[in-house]
């Protein structure tokens, strides 16, 4: 005897009992139930088994009869409880899947797949003992349910009331074409309340399960997610509950704000025309929206240096300040740095008109000196005459040089490029005075071209070069020298 057969047997038995009731008649039981056409024919052996089974269960039935008699019209739900409390019946129940309702719409026993292991209620079965024909009746033993438990929907913030959020659909295995067993009505069991108005925030269409907003102006920045409990109830009052998880979608309705009202940074002056590629300052913006398109810029003419910098947006939404013009610490105006304004808007380029979405901030930049200048000779080329018998230690000329770095305080030291004075016949001291270090000999070298070096104290140092031309004259050429003295060239020049 298969499980389904035992199930039928049990139902036959119950029906027979109910049929004998005086107060609770079979009509009472069938009331509200629908015949859905399930039928089964049994052979004589099986019919005999049914009869035998009925006899053995007779005593247990009596308790049910008593119970049912007191339940009258509310017999449907308690049947299961009573059955489960009865030892004799429990044996059968434990091995008797008893659901006639299955998703795949089978109506005759031969096609019915009794795979349900839960007994939610009893089935009612009629037996015509002559033909041993069994009819299964839909007894609304299935509560509606939401197969997924939690359902996800979303709605845009700041919208109107009545915006569609999502649709909740429960399943009921009872016959949708029979009465109200599978006719579902939806309602919200636990709604969320709008603090401002005290109104429920969502509503559900009772017939369709469509959830809509009941109030306008949801604010994602305040509450990004909601969770509500939805109940589906069938015509007999059986319920199933599902959860609607509702995400509020962002719109860009909040303004950006710089995280600081003023930004400070330091930057090296630029060296020559090369500009640094790396940003010199990164700024951050706070905006409660998720959907911003930040656009940064330096506000033109907002302060000194505004033309020397630009703002770019980084991939992470932050902004970076970059140098676009040479910066010169030796320029007296620039030496004290720069101060100007930057702005951000969260609606992208060319959308500055909506001032609600634009924020401003000051940038202060301190400029750092670097050693970008060589020393500068007062005279880069000096030519002089000297008698060949001039004494060692005699001063010839004085070179002067200054360096604009370090606010003009950069120190300059002097040296002679020994490649231009291999015999070391000249020396220069730290005051720039060139002296004779070894005797000169006109026959050997009548004309010296000594390269004078001016070296600053930067790290690394920078060097400028000047030239001292020394013309050595014969001691007997006094007269000629006197004449020539008037033509000594001292050219003012720039350093090389
Ligand atoms: Ca925004
Ligand atoms: Ca928003
Ligand atoms: Ca320098
Ligand atoms: Ca400098």
From TrEMBL:
GO terms for cellular component: catenin complex. Pfam families: Cadherin. It comes from the Eukaryota. InterPro entries: Cadherin, Cadherin-like_dom, Cadherin-like_sf. CDD domains: Cadherin_repeat. Residues 1-19 form the signal peptide. This is Cadherin domain-containing protein. GO terms for molecular function: beta-catenin binding; cadherin binding; calcium ion binding. Keywords: Calcium, Cell adhesion, Disulfide bond, EGF-like domain, Glycoprotein, Membrane, Repeat, Signal, Transmembrane, Transmembrane helix. The lineage of its organism: Eukaryota, Metazoa, Ecdysozoa, Arthropoda, Crustacea. GO terms for biological process: animal organ development; cell migration; developmental growth; establishment of planar polarity; establishment or maintenance of cell polarity; homophilic cell adhesion via plasma membrane adhesion molecules; neuron projection development. It is found in: Membrane. Residues 147-258, 259-377, 378-484 form the Cadherin domain. It is a single-pass membrane protein.
